[in-house]
Amino acid sequence: DLNTVEAVRTRVAELLAAAPELVETAWVHLKEGCSVGITSARLGLHRQSVYARLRRIESLTGLDLSRGRDRLELHLGLLVLRP
Q1: What are the strands, taking DSSP E only, across the chain?
Q2: Are 61 and 74 in contact (CB under 8 A)?
Q3: Residue 4 or residue 45, greater confidence
Q4: Model pLDDT for residues 19-65, shown as the tens digit of each residue
């Protein structure tokens, strides 16, 4: 559905404009199979910091990263829009 595609593009564009550290966190988290432990190790952050960033990502995008479809939408959006 074209409206869904546009909504995802808008959500991800807002994330890209908001904060580079959130984009990096989202990218690493998705690439590492959504493992908070691996994400925290790769980014050199405490696990709680990763959880806090993930909540900020969800807040900015309106996506629920516990849902597979929302994770897929974010991942595809980052693949298409990330510089």
Answers
A1: none
A2: yes
A3: 45
A4: 899 999 999 999 999 999 999 999 999 999 999 999 999 999 989 99
* Integer Cα distance of 67 and 20 in angstroms: 23
Model confidence at 2, pLDDT cuts 50, 70, 90, reads: low
* CB-CB contact of 9 with 74 (8 Å): no
User: At CB < 8 A and 24+ separation, what contacts does 41-50 make?
Assistant: 50/25
Q: Are 78 and 26 in contact (CB under 8 A)?
A: yes
CA-CA-CA-CA dihedral for 72, 38, 42, 78, to nearest 10: 0
Q: Which helix (H) or strand (E) holds 72?
A: helix 68-81
